[in-house]
Amino acid sequence: MTLRTILLASAAALTLAMPARAADPDLIVLDWAGWEFDGILTDYVAKHGQNPTYSFFADDDEAFQKASSGFKADLIHPCAASVSRYRDADLVEPWDTSKITEFANIPERMLNSEIFKDDAGVWFIPTDYAYTAIAYNTKEVPEADVATVKVFEDPKYAGRISLPDSTDDVWSLAFLATGVTSWENVTDDQFKAAADWLRAVHPNVRAYWADPAEMAQLMATGEVLVAWSWNDGVAALQQENFPVGFNRSPAEGAATWFCGFVNAKDGPGSEDKAYDFINSLLAPTSAQALLDELGYALANDAAMKTVPEEAQKAAYVDPVSTTLFAQTPVSLEFRTKMIEEFEAIKAGF
């Protein structure tokens, strides 16, 4: 995906009141901006002759707000930490995994939660994963400076850093920066320390990026030299030959996340086509396409074995030996606490 393409995808996401492109009326997919591309839709289009109808969002909070406000979709693409919200709001129903051809190849580590799988069934089908780490301008920023997440505190980069406008990503960074490597059982003191760190860093922030396109644009223009970033913004910049590095091994660690699909309750379209979509996305042929287009890995271990090791390394999805903060599901109470505190910090309080 070129920088121009990812910027266009972001622009499409801003048109929130209507789908980005109306196509197959029997399947409506509420998805991340930039996810409508041919490589993962090959089997679906071959069978049905057209793409699904998409409506795009920029982050998990926006997607949930849209779904909980009455927008009717058949499939929704949250990341793991947000799945509990859909279940608590009774917006989703279990999947019939016997209809998902590659289900056995989804790694168990991505299903090991009662929020994803319980006696009532499987509620979440993981499809993609990658990392959140330090993106930096290799011409302007010495490698030694990004050896630690303390780079975001460095007065040298005041007004030249960007953090994600994302609850999950910004708090995983804050916890890592303050010595916490999991948000399970976080104490009040640990939460306060992380919040204090975000407040201290806030004056250095040039912008909180809303999507990878914005992050890529901020770096491409030179406004931002260091960002806490997903893989796809880095991939877009590299394809434009921008001098960008991506350090997944700072001293404190990096974050790892995975996303997937929930089956919306009372969806207006075809349930059979929903399964056709999931099977198309999880097909082995999608692995290289997903890596090429977004810089993400497919949540299908067998499929990823077909992707050359050098290609995985180039996209920064090869295994990394560092502390990893896994953005796993959190309680609604704790998520609400993180959201409210982050909004206060951004507002200067």
Describe what this molecule looks like in 3D.
This is Extracellular solute-binding protein. Keywords: Signal. InterPro entries: SBP. It comes from Gemmobacter denitrificans. This protein has 349 residues and is of the alpha/beta class. The chain has 2 domains: 3-129 and 258-314, D-Maltodextrin-Binding Protein, domain 2, CATH 3.40.190.10; 131-255 and 322-346, 3-Layer(aba) Sandwich (D-Maltodextrin-Binding Protein, domain 2), CATH 3.40.190.10. 35% of the residues lie in helices and 20% in strands. The chain contains 13 helices and 14 strands. The protein has helices spanning 3-13, 42-48, 60-68, 83-88, 167-177, 188-201, 212-220, 231-239, 271-282, 286-294, 301-304, 309-314, 332-346, and strands spanning 24-32, 52-57, 75-76, 92-93, 117-118, 121-122, 125-137, 161-164, 205-209, 226-230, 244-247, 254-264, 297-298, 324-326.
Order of helices and strands: HEHEHEHEEEEEHHEHEHEEHHEHHEH
Mean pLDDT: 92
Which residues sit in consecutive blocks of at least 5 with pLDDT less than 50?
Answer: 1-20
Could you please say which CATH topology of the largest domain applies here?
D-Maltodextrin-Binding Protein, domain 2
Task: State the share of residues found in helices, binned by percent.
Answer: 25-40%
Count of distinct structural domains: 2
Structure annotation, total helices: 13
